[in-house]
Backbone:
């Protein structure tokens, strides 16, 4: 990661949430996916901070952030990020969310649209049956989970609790998200629904259905990329993000 202009821990909803801020300009909040952490966005931060104030954070229990006994839920995690924005005195921001981060972004778009200028939701799902069951045996995804465990042990304040953390968040994944087309149809935030052309985790039909359910949503298919497009093709990913969030 580049050197942050500001970093620290915000006390939100009973946890300590690690965050970092880079650059200046219209704000954009980057939210990582499940089991990950803020540093996954290093290539995006380096580019986006040239023209934007970029905010990254570790979601509750992930990376350097702590967790408590509260059951994981997307609404709670969205509340964490809104509290972080309050802590940073940011009223409104563009949001780029990947996987669980995209789901958190959709939750905010539905319930707190006044906080978002635009939403770039990459590799998200809105019901549990949108996840491809083949992901459980996918080698690329398996390598990500192994890498995430190593990163957790390196970054976390509770490095020996990775298995407990995974067990806690897995309870959420069994039943969430679970939104209807009617709920998606009420989204007013300008939204891009984004997927790699060979995403390992999310069914393509599910992504298409999401885009058609959200009024005015733009469907973006990233070529030659999978669930991990921001790592695999960072230059193309950054161009796609900037083209959408800077659109007037």
Residues:
């Amino acid at each position: 990661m580049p050197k942050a202009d500001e970093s620290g821990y915000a006390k939100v909803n009973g946890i300590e949430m690690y965050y970092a801020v880079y650059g200046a300009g219209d704000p954009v909040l980057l939210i990582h996916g499940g089991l990950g952490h803020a540093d996954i966005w290093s290539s995006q931060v380096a580019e986006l901070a040239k023209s934007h104030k970029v905010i990254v954070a570790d979601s509750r229990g992930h990376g350097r952030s702590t967790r408590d006994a509260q059951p994981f839920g997307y609404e709670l995690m969205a509340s964490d990020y809104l509290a972080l924005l309050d802590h940073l005195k940011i009223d409104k921001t563009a949001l780029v969310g990947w996987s669980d981060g995209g789901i958190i972004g959709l939750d905010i778009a539905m319930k707190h649209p006044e906080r978002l200028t635009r939403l770039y939701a990459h590799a998200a799902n809105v019901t549990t049956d949108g996840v491809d069951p083949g992901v459980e045996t996918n080698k690329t995804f398996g390598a990500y989970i192994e890498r995430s465990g190593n990163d957790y042990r390196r970054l976390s304040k509770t490095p020996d609790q990775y298995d407990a953390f995974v067990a806690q968040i897995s309870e959420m994944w069994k039943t969430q998200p679970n939104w209807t087309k009617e709920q998606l149809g009420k989204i007013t935030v300008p939204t891009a629904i984004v997927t790699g052309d060979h995403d390992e985790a999310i069914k393509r039909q599910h992504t298409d259905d999401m885009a058609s359910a959200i009024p005015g949503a733009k469907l973006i298919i990233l070529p030659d990329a999978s669930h991990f497009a921001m790592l695999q093709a960072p230059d193309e990913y950054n161009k796609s993000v900037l083209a959408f969030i800077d659109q007037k």
Q: What stands out?
A: The mean pLDDT is 97. The chain has nine helices and eight strands. The two ends are 29 Å apart (CA to CA). Residues 6-245 form a domain with the Rossmann fold fold (CATH 3.40.50.1820).
